[in-house]
Design brief:
Residues 20-68 form the AMP-dependent synthetase/ligase domain. This protein has 90 residues and is mainly α. The protein has helices at 16-27, 42-58, 75-85; strands at residues 31-35, 38-41. The chain is 44% helix and 10% strand. Strand 1 and strand 2 form a beta hairpin.
């Protein structure tokens, strides 16, 4: 928005979580992740993050805890989910 003044009506910095919520609401059916043959929409990415965060919370893991992940999931996927979920999976 060249030439406009930033204010709460036209500019609000987004946290990773608010970014994910907005992307799912605005671009829900658009592709957010392409990794090989795997594709996720923004809505699916949000749901996967919520499921992961919920599972970790049920295990007693909370903000500030460090989680190690040994799996076939690529570093890109692990880091993306951990970034949006506010946990450290890398």
């Amino acid at each position: 928005m060249e030439g406009s003044v930033r204010c709460s009506a036209n500019y609000v910095p987004l946290s990773p979580l608010s970014f994910l919520e907005r992307a799912a609401a605005v671009y829900g059916e658009r592709v957010s992740v392409i990794h090989g043959h795997v594709r996720f929409t923004w809505k699916e990415t949000r749901e996967r993050c919520l499921r992961l965060a919920s599972a970790l919370a049920r295990m007693g893991i909370s903000r500030g805890d460090v989680v190690s992940n040994l799996s076939f999931i690529s570093c890109f996927s692990r880091c993306k989910f951990s970034y949006f979920c506010g946990i450290d999976l890398c």
